[in-house]
Amino acid sequence: MIYSNWEVKDFNISYLKSRDDVKFIFGLDFGYQVSYNAFIAAAIEPTTRTMWVFDEMYEKGMTNLDIAKRITAMGYSKERIWADSAEPKSIAELRGGLIEETIVNGRREYVRYSLPNITEALKGPDSVANGISKMQEFHQIVHPSLEHYILELNNYAWAKDKDGNLTGKPEKIYDHDMDAARMALTGELSYGHGGVVEAKGGEFTTEETPQSAPVNTFQERPAVTPAEQVVEVPQTSLRKRVCRVFSSIRSD
C-alpha cells in the first residue's frame, strides 16, 4: 500500500480548533458517473507532521450544483478548497455560483449556491508523486466514521507494469479521497511560499451559530415578478453532522 503511517481513532475536533498550531484543510476531486466526487476535511499540525481527517463527501453522479449544495450543507462553503485543476470550468462555475429554482409557498425563488474560495490545486511535472511523498511524511489519524477514506487507505497501491515492476505511479482506483487529501495538503503547504496559513472563510465551531443575512443577489438571473425573489444561501459554519459525530467524544 502507498500509505502505511495511519490509524483509525476517535479524536476531539473542539480541542484541535482551540490549538493555534493546527490548520484546517479541504480538498475536492471531481468525478461523475464512473468516478466518485470526493471531498475531504482535515486538520494538520506541520511541526509534528500530524494530520487528522474528520469529514468526507463521496458520491457519484453529482452535478456542480449538487456539489455546491452538499458542501454548503456540510458547512464548508466559505473555506479555501483545493480542487482538481483538470476541471477549470467546474471550478469557475462553483466559484461564481449556480442557481436553483424552487417553489416556496407558491412563490418562485432562485437560490444561489457558491464556493467563493475554491482554488485550483497545484499541477506540474511529478506533482502527484511529490504530493504522495509529502503525504507520507504525515501520520494520519482518521475518524472511524469515514468509511470511504479508510477503504481507500487500505487499497491505494502503486501500479505495476506488465512485468510486475512498480511504475512509481498510483493505480487509478481507490484514489478519489486520496487525491482530494493530497491536493488539500500540498496546496495548503505551498500557499504563501511554503508556509501554512489559515484557510479563509467562516470559523469552525461546534456550537450552532446564527446564519448571516443574505448578501448580494445573483446578477445574471431570470427576470422575476413581484411574487418571486432570489435567495442567497448563507455561508454557514461547521455543519450539524460534525457536531453530532463528535458530541459523544470526550472533551479534553
Task: Describe the protein's topology.
Layout: E1 6-8, H1 13-18, E2 23-29, E3 37-45, E4 50-59, H2 64-74, E5 81-83, H3 88-96, E6 98-104, E7 107-113, E8 118-120, H4 127-136, E9 139-142, H5 147-153, E10 158-160, E11 166-170, H6 176-190, E12 229-232, H7 240-247
Helix pairs in contact: 4-6
The strand order across the widest sheet is 1-9-4-3-2-5-8
Number of strands: 12
Radius of gyration, whole Å: 19 Å
The residue ranges in which pLDDT falls below 50 over 5 or more consecutive positions are 193-202, 205-228, 239-252
User: What portion of residues belong to β-strands?
Assistant: 25-35%
What would you say the CATH architecture is? Answer: 2-Layer Sandwich
> Helical content, roughly?
25-40%
Assembly classification: single chain
Which CATH top level class fits?
Alpha Beta
What is the H/E order?
A: EHEEEHEHEEEHEHEEHEH
Structural class: alpha/beta
Relevant terms:
single chain; 252 residues; alpha/beta; Nucleotidyltransferase, domain 5; three-stranded mixed beta sheet; 7 helices; 12 strands; globular
Mind explaining what this structure looks like?
By secondary structure, the chain is an alpha/beta fold. It has a single domain, classed as Nucleotidyltransferase, domain 5 (2-Layer Sandwich). It contains seven helices and twelve strands. The strands form three sheets. Strands 1-9-4-3-2-5-8 form a seven-stranded mixed sheet, with helices on both faces. The chain is globular and about 65 Å long.
